[in-house]
Design a protein that fits this description.
A: mainly alpha, B: about 550 residues, mainly alpha, 3-stranded antiparallel β-sheet, two-stranded antiparallel sheet, globular
Chain lengths: ~625, ~550
Amino acid sequence: MESLIGLLVAAPLLGAALLLVGGRRLDRFGHWLATGLAALSFTLAAVLFVDMLGRDGGDRALSQHLYSWVPVNGFQADIAFQLDQLSMTFVLLITSVGTLIHLYSVGYMEHDVRRRRFFAYLNLFLAAMLILVLADNYLLLYVGWEGVGLASFLLIGFWQHKPSAATAAKKAFVVNRVGDVGLAIAIFLMFSTFGTFAFSPVLSDAEQASEGTLTAIGLMLLLAACGKSAQVPLQSWLGDAMEGPTPVSALIHAATMVTAGVYLVVRSGAIFDGAPAAQTVVVVVGAVTLLFGAIVGCAKDDIKKALAGSTMSQIGYMMLAAGLGPIGYVFAIMHLVTHGFFKAGLFLGAGSVMHGMNDEVDMRRYGGLRKYMPVTFVTMGLGYLAIIGFPYLSGFFSKDEIIYAAFGKGGTEGWILGGVTLLGAALTAYYMTRIMLMTFFGEKRWVKDAEGKDPHPHESPLSMTVPMIVLAVGSVGAGFVFNLNHSFVDWLSPVVATADGNSPVSHGMVSVLATVLMLVGVGAAWFQYGRRPIPEVAPTGVWITRAARRDLLQDDFNHAAFVTPGSYLTRGLVYVDHKLVDGVVNGTAAGFGGLSGRLRKVQNGFARSYAASMFGGAAILIAVTLLMRAV
Amino acid sequence: MNSWTHAQGVLETPQFEWVALSPTLIVVGAAVIGVLVEAFAPRRHRYGTQVVLAVLALATAFAAVVGLAADGHASTQAQVAGMGALAVDGPALFLQGVLILVGFVSVFLFAERRLEPAEHGRAVDSFAAQAAATPGGTAEKLAVKSGYTTTEIFPLMLFALGGMLLFPAANDLLMLFIALEVLSLPLYLLCALSRRRRLLSQEAAVKYFLLGAFASAFLLFGIALLYGYAGTLSYAGIADVISGAPPAVDPGLAATMGNDAYLLIGGALVVMGLLFKVGAVPFHMWTPDVYQGAPTPVTGFMAAATKVAAFGALLRLLYVTLPGMRWDWEPVLWGVAIASMLAGAVIAITQTDVKRLLAYSSIAHAGFILAGVLAVSEDGVSSVLFYLAAYSFVTLGAFAVVTLVRDGEGEATHLSKWAGLGRRSPLLAGVFALFLLAFAGIPLTSGFAGKFAVFSAAADAGAMGLVIVGVIASAIAAFFYVRVIVLMFFSEPQEDGPSVVVPSPMTTSMLGVAAAVTIVLGVAPQYFLDLAGQAGVFVR
């Protein structure tokens, strides 16, 4: 069984290699090859999952040691995989949603000339993410981490002919780089503290390290997580990343990339448990991002950017839960999985709408689409109900558990966090209802596209709708299955620490509160967008709307805080380089050149002066030798 | 024991270790046969016969070296052979091996006949049709028309190589002098044999001969003084006298024996003679003129092999004979090393001719190698041995490239003509760039491994000052090496620039070998460093 783990990773990796190296002759069937390999990976994951269920909770983990990269004294860099319940959860999510997105892309990218390359990158993305969650040490995790960064760069900038896409890819890469530095420093600190990278000694011996060290490692890990998971203050890349093809957005937001940060924090739980200060920072980051993303999501007219704000907000929920420690870890992962289903479904739905509307993304130019795209409407509607936490759908279970755990933190903190999460639930209901109303209901506000063609909305082909239907089923049922007999908690508890909080509010009360606030959010959205026609040009709005449209001024802040001082610093350095360094260098070079020119005059071509030089040399040689003896 | 000190009584039958000396004997024997071939074989058969003869002889000689080394002659069985005149030990065998390989590769360069345009329907090589004909005269035209070629180059080259094989093995001063002359005289001749620019070539030969004779005179005078001091010519014997164990005083030398002035002056003069051969400052001035004027294959052979042989001889002299007066010669050689490194590197900056550029580069390299010599340790010896092996192949390769870049007037050696070469002939320019990077000592080339070995040996021996100057000189030198690379790859090609001639497989394979050695010694130097390390002990 162990050997299947390597194959699981190898399949998409092989696909990426074949498609990139194989060249044009793979153009005709390359996308099916990639989809098949992703499906193979999923099948292997399923086999491993069934096998794992056959064993007791305590010894479900498998490990596979492939080889030692650098086996020297005191430094072990191993390529080794570890498959426990936590990794298994991620593997199933990544491969299942990943396969569906591959399938969807077959239809979506049908007319793109570089389709083969697109599928190669998708496979690479999958492989990198699998390495990330399967690594049994932080060094290999870092390999996957960087692989994800590379693949996301390639995919966000896939339509590189558009300057906006190229810029977005660059932005995502640079912002992620800041986080990557954090991960690298965390790994350095781990190695200098524990002398190894492997999970088992680092995490099992974590309490032996001083709290200061653990706090430092924890904060650096959080920085890394903020980069990949688009948390404040490294959130700015996510919205721009919508420049990539829509399947890429679905993949980044649901199954890969943004979940990596949550995985990192939960996996490193032992370190955070020993560093309360770092944990508090995680909670704060989660709470701030939760509201930040939700507010941005409320104001965007671009359907994908609205959904991007939503993702940021939902990942904020997870991060907050992960920061709560053992009372929240399991629910962070649970929400991650349910979110994986409904957010993938929502994005694929958005892609389907765009597909039918000549790639129009402005929701103010949609309207009344439910009649033209019934499948898209129904599947997206189910995803919508799931994300707002409609009772007994997926989001209801996982989000309520997080709200309950937030209250369970206890004391004033508990009340604040509970309040924030409940407010987030209301905002979620508001912005999601807004999206649905603007897209599928109301008057048609369609306009001709750039080439003057009227849009002819139509249902998308089967290869696109089938994945949407499957994901809708997951959105509806996953939460219920997970909550049945605490199955999800029991599944993860052998590997992830769990604890009960001491919430001042009962579980039932939380559900009622959340549902009421959800209805308030829906009602507010209907009041604003369902009751009266939507203006085709966005009204100016109050200051908070204007700020939210500009992503709450994130780019203005970054520009003022980093770009401007940075460019002044660069200019200063360039000046110093030109005047001082170049001066010294050029002066030295000119000096040697002049010396050289003078010295070469000695070489005048006359044998007699050569002989004289030899004679003089011999005289000096003898004189110095004699002098040395005399001294 | 010298035979002539036994004038009275029965003359002993000289003992001669045929097997231990076989590498040299084979090469010199083949040279003699080569002369006979010139005398008796029909003209049209000479070229083929000579090439085959030289190749066979060198292959056999190399096998003999390997056999001797495998037999333990490089380590446990090291011995002094030929009545005390020649050492057969690690350094000698290592350097002889390198020399024979260099000679082997050079034969291909000498035998190349596809570079010059055919004259009167016959392929010709880089050498004059008839050496004795006046340049531009009727005799020359006649010789060219009759299709004469100077196939004497092969025996000449083998004779020179024979002398070079003796040079690092010479274990007494007389043998040192004989070896010097055996290697020098054929080289003087070879320098004069260029087919193109014959006047320049002859001028180079005359200069080389005059200055070489001058240096030989110094060397010989030094030998005489040392004999006066020690009463013996053998290295070990002189070393004994220096360390304070004089043998019975020869009555004829009673006035001079043990007088330190003779030792100091004599030692300095002998060292000077050798420094002339390695081309160290201030005895370097012949190198640019001779390197430029000589036929390029000869320059390549001479630049690579002479340096190997002369440094071998210098090492033995300093390590076996003169360690007792180490404090006297070290400061002088420090000065020579520093002057060579700096002068070579600095003057090379303003050179415009690629052959002269390489000549100054060789002067700087002589300085680098001297730094290793000055370590005065076993590491120093082995690092110098490695450096010489690495350097000789890079040099040969670089000059081989020079033979290929040609325009209507033969080789286009002016650097301005090399502009943009990388665009027209990327492969050849790439190979040349590899050699230049190796000269500059960039990692993953043999030059880096060699420089690192030499400098670390010097640093371990406490010669930090030399290392610092060496690194500075390397930095200066890197400038002009890289400048040529920039010129080749980033400048616009000239309108009527030179073209790269497609050579025969001989030059191609020779270039391939040089490039391969450069890369292998750079990427995986450890095996060869170990080999040189095992060969680091001199027999006494």
